[in-house]
Design goal:
two-stranded antiparallel ribbon, single chain, mainly alpha
């Protein structure tokens, strides 16, 4: 078994392979196997070093790609990347991805593009994935504020932490009316700390700014996965709450204030 597969449950891999195969075979009505073959080829790499050969082998049967065998013999990390690229839910690794992707498509296309690119950078450039995840969160916060009617010029003047603070104030999570619900206010404060720390991680531990030769960069995909999961959870909640508590007559007109006693938790 490939070393990249040893950290992933064989049972989980079997289930994931089935989902990936099903998804690929349902994507094209015409020239199905040809298009599946082209798609798999985009993940395939051959190396000049004969000892390295290729990152995985493509198997064939009757002049068509043998998709099932190819997926089963593929390294686990590549299979995971393909699953993420196809929008397949990967519980325990990157949960809620398909749901959040659908939200982002409607919410902010630039954020959606950055989110997709974060996945692609996960393993080879985890620091880039962290930086992109930070950009996604910032885009979500700005878009939410625009949609609930906050002035665009004011939004542009706000930094990362101020954007989160403004959203939480608009939602009245930090409002004086919440004085009798200290736990919610404490959670809101924690959300500001999370946003601030993600921004600090991007600034101090990625190539977003100039780095000295011995400066640490995020080099473990686990931290990138963790950051993307946090952004996903925050983004889903903040956008769902906006959809629940605000309804728009026009794109940026706020038509309903948030009643604090109607919190969904």
């Amino acid at each position: 078994m490939d070393s990249n597969q040893q950290d992933i449950s064989p049972k989980y891999l079997m289930e994931l392979i089935s989902e990936v195969e099903k998804k690929l075979l349902s994507m094209w009505e015409e020239s199905k196997y040809k298009n599946v073959h082209y798609y798999i080829l985009k993940w395939h790499e051959e190396y000049e070093d004969f000892n390295q050969g290729e990152n995985f082998h493509i198997y064939y049967q009757n002049d068509n790609i043998d998709l099932n065998t190819t997926l089963h013999r593929m390294p686990g990390d590549i299979l995971m990347k393909i699953a993420i690229d196809l929008g397949i839910n990967t519980p325990g690794y990157l949960p809620s991805i398909p749901l959040f992707k659908n939200d982002l498509k409607n919410l902010n296309k630039n954020a959606y593009s950055a989110y997709e690119n974060a996945f692609k950078a996960l393993h080879e450039n985890p620091d880039e994935a962290v930086s992109l995840a930070n950009s996604v969160l910032e885009s979500i916060l700005k878009t939410i504020l625009i949609e609930i009617g906050v002035d665009k010029e004011e939004i542009q003047r706000l930094n990362h932490i101020k954007l989160m603070q403004k959203v939480l104030k608009e939602y009245k999570f930090l409002h004086s009316e919440s004085s009798d619900i200290t736990e919610v206010r404490d959670i809101a404060s924690a959300l500001m700390n999370i946003a601030n720390n993600i921004e600090d991680l991007r600034s101090a531990k990625t190539k977003a700014h100039g780095r000295a030769a011995d400066d640490y960069l995020v080099d473990d995909p686990l931290w990138a996965v963790f950051t993307i999961n946090v952004v996903t959870t925050l983004g889903l909640f903040l956008n769902d709450y906006k959809n629940k508590k605000y309804k728009s007559v026009e794109d940026t007109e706020k038509t309903e204030s948030v009643e604090y006693n109607a919190l969904p938790f």
